[in-house]
Amino acid sequence: MSFFGVLSITPYALYRYYTADLTVAIADSFAIISILVAVIYAWRTNNTVKPGLYLAIIFSTVATIVTLKLGINGYFWIYPLILFNFFMVSPLRALTIMVTVLASVVIYHTLHPNTVFPNHYQMVSFLVTCLLSSFLTFIFAFRTQHQRERLENLASHDPLTGAYNRRIMAIELNKAVRDTRSMRIYSLLIMDLDHFKNINDTFGHLTGDQVLVDFVRIIQASIRENDQLFRYGGEEFALLLPDTNHDGLEVVAAMLKKQVSSKLYSPAGSVSVSIGGAVLNSKESYPDWFKRADDQLYIAKQAGRNCYRIAAPDNLSYQAA
Ligand SMILES: Nc1nc2c(ncn2[C@@H]2O[C@H](COP(=O)(O)OP(=O)(O)OP(=O)(O)O)[C@@H](O)[C@H]2O)c(=O)[nH]1
């Protein structure tokens, strides 16, 4: 957008300087400089939301000035401005900005008749076509946003339980491993339902599915808001816990084990979970961290299930309940 913006505005800015139309020339130059500042900011911070809003406001102000100054030679810029704004900011923000721009033009025309538009009829035509274009673009942008959110949701969640899927787990665990700047302590729990195959074999897959859904509901209700639950296999789940140290991880594992065994039921009775956990060591890769937690899960299963094991920082297993 910025490339096309600079490409299309620069010749006009030069022409305005050439014809000594200083107000419009300065407005055009300001728009070009703003584009470059916004691009540099977005490039450096990876944040496109703030520069998007900044550019939408700058461009809308410049297009309004050009419209008021040049009349018919300026107001055609409002049409590409509509598309630009809906591309740069959220649909509601873009609509608000467009209504503000059009209101400014109409107020100016009312206060200074015949300066922008030769007559009221032309002003009304301009207003109606701009409003129509804005509303149609709003509907288009709103639908696109809604569809994108649905697609994002489908691509990141397990359809049965609603927990995050394996793809997001890899992204989030890698993010935690790379987060060396914040000094946060990240922990991981791997949870696996005990004797789940028996439930499927005895009562059928639908009953098994319901147990999985209930399990996720129980876990979600017991964890903090910024903990993230992933389903990475059939009845295997991972829980990422930021700001949780070894002692904290023990407390959470004990609490989740208790919550599950007291609240999760199949037609055969209570269902339990085995849990393995590990705190992220510095300079450890995501697969190594995951493996350390998974090894602890294996030890918990070997120890008779319905229990948890947490890797000690020196890789020794803590004997736990
Ligand atoms: N209902 C249902 N079952 C699933 C799903 N995904 C995997 N499974 C079943 O989960 C069961 C996993 O069995 P195992 O890996 O033997 O584990 P387990 O019976 O829980 O035994 P332990 O983990 O050793 O206690 C298999 O029967 C799979 O078919 C699913 O989405 N729905």
From TrEMBL:
What InterPro entries does this protein's entry cite? Answer: Diguanylate_Cyclase, GGDEF_dom, Nucleotide_cyclase, Rev_trsase/Diguanyl_cyclase
Q: Which reaction does it catalyse?
A: 2 GTP = 3',3'-c-di-GMP + 2 diphosphate
- PROSITE patterns, from UniProt? GGDEF
Tell me a Gene Ontology molecular-function term this record carries.
Answer: diguanylate cyclase activity
UniProt KW Transmembrane keyword: yes
Q: Which UniProt keywords apply?
A: Membrane, Transmembrane, Transmembrane helix
SMART domains with a match to the protein in the record: GGDEF
Membrane-crossing segments per the record = 22-43, 55-79, 91-111, 123-142
Compartment(s) where it occurs, according to its Swiss-Prot or TrEMBL record: Cell inner membrane
| Listed GO CC annotations | plasma membrane
The protein depicted here goes by the name diguanylate cyclase
Annotated source species? Denitrificimonas caeni
